[in-house]
Protein 1
Amino acid sequence: MIRDSIKTALTGAMKAGDRPRTGAIRLIQAAIKNRDIELRGAANPPEDDALVIDVLQKMIKQRRESIEMYRKGNREELAAAEAAEVAVIEGFLPRQMSDDEIAAAIDALIVETGAAAVRDIGRIMALLKDRHAGALDMGKASAMAKARLS
């Protein structure tokens, strides 16, 4: 489970005295704990790894937006710190699909569902999320699917 690997990594980072990595892992744990609290009493809580992957992907998205803003403001040192956190967070995600693999998956789903126009993108994206959640960036996949269907 990803949650266990995060806990183990925190222990290792603390023993190694790696303060930036320790801080990033603590941020990850805090975000996961916040999500756990939000979902208390939920009728159908998501599977644990799916929950953790979702939290990690949102954290990466937030940091990439921050990096862009820092670079626009000529704050390269802050952008570098955010990029280091992204690297730590990405280390806990499952292997991400390459652009070619995403394109192949989209093409297979288009054939499978008989999608012919952009209006069919909802079905394609729902199937992509069901089959490959956590292994791809849904924003990138959505743009690729739109391009293929238009």
Note: The radius of gyration is 18 Å.
Protein 2
Amino acid sequence: MRRSLTPTIVLTLAGFLFGMLLRYRIDPAEEASFANYLRSGLHGAGVTYATWMVHVYFTSRSSEWLRRWPLAAELFVRALVMAAVITIVTTGLQVVLYGLRIEAKWVEAELPLIVGIALVLSILIAAIHELTRLIGGRALFNVLIGRYRRPILEERVLLFLDLAGSTTLAENMGEVRVQDLLKEFFFDIDQPITAHGGEVHAYVGDEVIVTWRVTPTWPQRRCVDCFFAIEDRIAARADKYRKGFGVVPEFRAGLHAGRVVVSECGDSRRQVAYFGDTMNVTARLQALCKDAGRTLLVSGDLLRLVEPIKDLIVEPLGPTQLRGRAAPIEVFSVRRR
């Protein structure tokens, strides 16, 4: 819910302004008073807040039961609930704001208009929100302004994190059951990723790729802290995983920093893709975790970006030759004290 606080405030204020604008457009001039404009603003804010809360519910884990239904059934239920909430809240606010006066003219003329406008806007906001969740807020903004129409170089930190022993899990549990586990795992780790400013670039099989853009004001410890926040998140839900799957997910990760080529790719299905040596090195670091018996390996390039890590144990593993790369790199194991 914390992640929805900013859009909640912005949309509620927008609803307040839209309520006053609607009064200006449809009401006679003799009703133009400060009190009436204030009531209309509060009316708009209340309806907007209620519709946004319905949308937040339908995109949260609480409504997972509905997302198991066919898409057509899910959309029908969401539209039905949205229409009912808008009608109830609109009528209730009319009673509260205008002193228990509900006139037949308002019910016949204004109520359908308010409900119709609110439904259309809620569908539009929901579509934008779902598109943002699908692509990512920053990525969507960069696509809209055409930042990646041509390949550009960016300094980025990359985190490659994958589920350990997924092949064995698939043999023991079955592929469909393991996919349920992965779905749960990716859902749980999303909160610490976003809380630490990370962008989920892609899910590849049992692996998630997270990225941070390096800027002069970039919070240097976020990428390292993110991994340990994920550890804490999964540990806090260990009992849930044991009850649901009979196993608590274990994972390994590689962290590296460097220049990445970023560009839009494809035509019928377009996406923002990353290319370059930094991607390959991060993937190799993550793969090296298994042989090194470590859960988190980072490169020397990454450590040079972050501030002194006094609360962590940084163990140098020395220059390491990574598969497919001629020059060795400095590799470090990082764990908490």
Note: DSSP finds twelve helices and eight strands in the chain.
Protein 3
Amino acid sequence: MNRKPLFLSFVFLGLVLFSLSWPPAAQEKHVAVIKVNDVITPAIAEFISKSIEQASKDRAQCLIIKMDTPGGLDLSMRDIIKDMMNADIPIVVYVAPSGARAASAGAIITLASDIAAMAPGTNIGAAHPVALGGGMDRKMAEKVTNDAIAYVKSIAEKKGRNAEWAARAVRESVSITETDALKIKVIDLIARDLEDLLGKIDGKTVEKPRGKIKLATKGFKINTMEMDFRQRFLAALSNPNIAYILMMIGMVGLYFELAHPGAIFPGVIGGICLILAFFAFRTLPVNYAGVLLILLGIFLFIAEIKIASYGLLTVGGVVSLALGSIMLFESPLPYLRASFAVIIPTILATAAFFIFAVTMVIKAYMAKPATGSEGLVGETGVARTRLDPEGKVFVHGEWWNAYSDEIIEEGEKIRVLKTDGLTLKVEKLKKKN
């Protein structure tokens, strides 16, 4: 019996198992970098969470979050901070480039980092909490503020930063420059750019859940990670301007489908846009009185078709649409409201569409029938036989039985006065002088 093939099979199997058990080749020493230049939303929170996870798997020395944000949602901010504080690798928040800011939620995220850095010409602060839906009474506002103060102080104390300033940033919405932030120990350092930052954090020791980690970053390769398509899509949906436009397209699409059953395409697009809009509304300060006013405006446009209001319902629809659009997002923060540069053209375009649709429908109702026997009234033709009083006429490419109150000779031109079943009443066509 030839044992050589069996022996070679065992050798091959052994090599496969050995290769699987061998640790992966060490990656080139690097630091991971992500850029956050947007409002803090669930999509941004997911991006940061996935980036921390990936950087840990890739054995990066640290993750640098290059930040420029006006703030964002409290729940998303807290999710980010939990991921940062429980990460296996050091997290560095770098407020950059010059002219950038870490405001509101961004300021608290910066305080929660293992190393906080800022570029020249940047600022941090203004972390007072804002009610997304508005309408908080004084007692509730005080509770929310006290909760935010306790939260930010605990973070600052844990990271060895200025807890008193952190409390003032929440209570009084104070904001400071990078030089003042360094002086009062809000941040750890100022760096011109990423290369300068890597040189300055080299050798620093940070405390993580698994123990102390000493950074070695000088001259390391920078590995920049980007948002994937799904995260970019979700981030775009969180924009109030996008959410508003999607809602308006959805309503117009559904109106068109209801007005013209069987068109299918407008209904499908309208339904998808409305679902996406209401998905975006979960993370935006939506005032549902605004939504109801927009729905009322569309109802008034539709009612104009059925009721002769001489344009009053259309005017009411435009006013209701405008008020609803302005009231739709209720927040003192501009990045959580739809821009007037988007609202005004959208209102004008939507109103123009509905006015055009209503006008066409009214014209169709008022127009005389163009088909069937009723459509023959007013048409001209030729007498094919003598009408005394009955005979045959040729109208609209067809032969008809006809009668007249006057005698009409064969070959004379006639006009249809009315229809009586399948018989036409006609008159002799008068010649113009």
Note: The mean pLDDT is 84.
